Amino acid sequence: MSIENRLRTVFVEALQLDDDVDVENLKYRDIDAWDSVGHMALVAAIEDEFDVQFETEQVIDMSSFKVAVDMLRGFGVGE
Amino acid sequence: MSVFALSQAEKEAALLAQLTELTAHHRAHSPEYDRILSALGAPTAFGSVADLPWLPVRMFKTHDLKSIPDDEVFKVLTSSGTTGAGASRIYLDKEAAAVQPRQLGATLREVLGGKRLPMLMVDTISIIKNRRSFSARGAGVLGMANFGRSHVYALDEHDQPDVEAVKGFLEKHGGEPFLIFGFTFMVWQYLYEVAREHKLDLSNGILIHSGGWKKLIDIAVDNAEFRRRFAEDTGLTRIHNYYGMIEQIGTVFLEGPSGNSLYCPDFADVIIRDPDTWEERPVGEPGVIEVVSTLPRSYPGHVLLTEDLGVVHGIDDGDWPGKRFSVLGRLPRAEARGCSDTFAGAAA
């Protein structure tokens, strides 16, 4: 499964998103569910799913779905 | 790159230019601020950082001070206003909201490194449950959460110490460096006391704490005693107090590794003033703390007179360059206010 598909599932589950949310274009604080509390849960869920550990700066910089995809590619996560 | 790099002379030169520009920026974009400065007869050029016009921090409770148009307001922070004057309102646009966690991160990196450590929160998870309105305590906890992972809360939902949770955390993570965060008197009451009673080993911990000493001074525990007892009874020696306020969000003054002195990051500084003449006080003489920072761009909070008393201990002579200082307490006439003071607690 592609990174995008796996990450979409993580976003939907961690942030409890409705089906109609455009996950790929989601940005931090676009929706109520992705606030600072949601962000904590999201980061932990991504780390679990992809078996990676983000640094502090990456957690602060993870401002959109697309940025998260790029970060995972940076870790060498395979498609 | 360290944000504790500049000597005092280098810092003042950099700050004078940036703060002068910020003063002009805020006058141009905040009519209210411009009115206040005009009424004071403030000039537009300054010989030193100490010459810059300051705002009493209390003005953020009584005036709507912002330097951004209404439609660019992204977030309004409110302080834990208690009696009388109400709460401060701090206006952030998107950029300001993004800058402040970055600069806080750059400051704390000095003692934490870049890796997120397992994190023990000396608080209760219920503090962040009401997502619509966080208390100052909740906001503090959330702001720090980014610096850790695998968060465990040391208090249960009824604000009682959860000894089993702390023991479980230490069994899992106690053998490697881990992060502890909490408000000062809660750390004392709910971590120190519990750790001593249960003989918990905190020697791999790095403690970051803040929130004022008022409640601890009442039981004769000051910063030095806090450090001494933690080291003796729990093995915890890497302890960093910090001083900061919502009116200068993202800027914190951090206790250095040897303890008992707070240091200013390169983008900020403190000036101690005589409360009668407002002249700058020399090293060793207490006075009112003025804080300056280049971060506030969406509201005119770059030069603020606090309601706290402090003293500079030395300049360019400590763990890190620049001024090192202590906070001595609140100005006698200031209303009681402070993040940790909002916690009534089941005090022993």
| Unreliable stretches of chain A | none
Shape of chain B: globular
- The overall strand count of chain A is 0
Give the averaged pLDDT of chain A, no decimals.
Answer: 92
Low-confidence stretches of chain B: 335-348
What value does the average pLDDT of chain B take?
91
Largest sheet of chain B: 12 strands, mixed
Q: Name the assembly state.
A: heterodimer
The radius of gyration over CA of chain B amounts to 20 Å
Helix content of chain A: 55-70%
**What is the terminal-to-terminal distance of chain B?**
44 Å
Structural class of chain B: alpha/beta
Largest sheet of chain A: none
| Span of the ends, CA to CA of chain A | 6 Å
Structural class of chain A: mainly alpha
* CATH architecture classification name of chain A: Orthogonal Bundle
Order of helices and strands of chain B: HHEHEEHEHEHEHEHHEEEEEEE
- Give the fraction of residues assigned to helices of chain B: 25-40%
- General shape of chain A: globular
Strand content of chain A: under 5%
Write the layout of secondary structure elements.
The complex is a heterodimer of chains A (79) and B (348).
Chain A (H helix, E strand, L loop, with lengths): L2 H13 L20 H15 L5 H6 L3 H10 L5
Helix pairs in contact in A: 1-2, 1-4
Chain B lengths: L7 H22 L1 H10 L14 E2 L2 H4 L12 E4 L10 E4 L1 H19 L4 E8 L11 H10 L2 E8 L7 H11 L4 E6 H15 L6 E6 L3 H4 L5 H12 L3 E6 L9 E3 L6 E2 L4 E6 L13 E7 L9 E13 L7 E8 L18
Parallel strand pairs in B: 1-13, 4-5, 4-6, 6-7, 7-8
Antiparallel strand pairs in B: 2-3, 8-9, 9-10, 10-14, 11-12, 12-13, 13-14
